[in-house]
Amino acid sequence: MSDEQLAEFVWGLANTGYAFLRNMRPDLVKGSDTTGLPPVFAAATEGRNMLSTWCPQAAVLEHEAVGVFLTHSGWNSTLESIYGGVPIVCWPFLAEQQINCRYKRTEWGIGMEISDDMRRAEVEALIQEAMEGRRAGRCAATRRS
Fold it and tell me: Which GO terms of the molecular function aspect are on file (predicted)?
């Protein structure tokens, strides 16, 4: 993703008001080897964010506090989110990710897709729909306890 896409994405996430875990590899932003964000972002989300470069994803997705999973939609992430019973917001980039996203959206009804030209308002709206809207409880019946 570009620096602009990252900024729109994280500000959309921040604008929801929800607590979040942002797990991002250092090589995710084109031409950058950092996952850093401006200090104003850290200040705006203080006390409700956790930023990391790695986490035990399957274990996190099985935790009852997780309300939605924003993912590129790789197959492992797809399986782990289904197993954890978590609604999905997909942002596919390459390989099988677009196909996985399509199935989550149209066939299984457990996911929504971020458009290629996404802006923060779209990210915010998708997260709120997954957390509070008609899709919020869709995966809850499969959630493991």
Answer: quercetin 3-O-glucosyltransferase activity; quercetin 7-O-glucosyltransferase activity
Enter the pTM of the model: 0.81
| Residues 53 and 35: beta-carbon distance below 8 Å | yes
Residue 118 CA to residue 12 CA, distance in Å, equals 10
Helical packing angle, 120-132 and 3-15, nearest 10° = 40
What is the tally of structural domains in the chain? 1
Structural domain contains residue 45? yes
pLDDT tens track for 107-117: 998 999 998 88
Domain residues for the domain of 128 are: 3-133
Whether 119 is in a domain gets the answer yes
- Using CA of residue 31, residue 101, residue 88, residue 145, what is the dihedral sign? negative
